[in-house]
Amino acid sequence: MSLALENVGVAFGGFQALAGVTLAVEPGQVMGLIGPNGAGKTTCVNTLTGFQRPTTGRVRLEGRDVSALAAHGFRREGVARTFQAGRLFGGLDVLDNLACTGVGLGQRRAAAEHEASDILGWMGISDLESRPAAGLPYTDERRVAIARALMGAPRYLLLDEPAAGMSEKEAADLADLIRRIASERGIGCLLIEHNVGLVLSVCAHVVVLDGGRVIEAGDRAAILASDAVREAYFGA
Ligand code: ADP
């Protein structure tokens, strides 16, 4: 079981953003995706969630070729994501933000509200339920965006720079949450982060991209020992 890119290339006009990328996220695992700016991380996430079609290669979900599936199809098939900016419905309260997503996934309103309330409770943020999304402090907004992504019990969750703009303490709390999402809910997570320390502390497996190619993949020790990674980040 996995959500995988198989030898994926993505070209924008003549520009090759990804070339021959192969990686797989497994249920219950937190995988990290790091690399310098422009390495192709967001393009990977977009391709794994139907926001970008591969030019070559395949996207596979539990072995099935889903390369042609649209973004809402991925969501319905259990692949959720968060965005760099929250993208909440500002005019609705937090519970409604989650419930609307559930309804969009085919749930009845009452069931969606029930699940929304459960998720907020599980995350320890039930106090936010009736707060308008528009007025939320930044870190709460990010947590609500993650809560919303958990609606409909996805099997995979892709997090695009969830710790951006957070303090060290807030990032550590976020790291705990991501670990719990994987271990307690069995969700396979892919974490893109500029904060490499956070990635190495949370992820058992890390893939490093540079120039649209995988230049290293392995556990924390392998990444820290890699000459290719050092060169990509520090040019030495
Ligand atoms: P990262 O997330 O690692 O910073 P991206 O995946 O955002 O990298 O981008 C990889 C490369 O592809 C960059 O050079 C970027 O400018 C280019 N790129 C991304 N999206 C597009 C697009 N829609 N059109 C043209 N070029 C793009």
TrEMBL record:
InterPro entries (alphabetical): AAA+_ATPase (IPR003593), ABC_AA/LPS_Transport (IPR051120), ABC_transporter-like_ATP-bd (IPR003439), P-loop_NTPase (IPR027417)
MF terms in GO: ATP binding
Record PROSITE patterns: ABC_TRANSPORTER_2
UniProt keywords, alphabetically: ATP-binding, Nucleotide-binding, Transport
SUPFAM superfamilies named in the record: P-loop containing nucleoside triphosphate hydrolases
Entry keyword Nucleotide-binding: yes
Residue ranges of every copy of the ABC transporter domain listed in the record: 3-236
Protein name (database record): ABC transporter ATP-binding protein
Species: Rhodobacter flavimaris
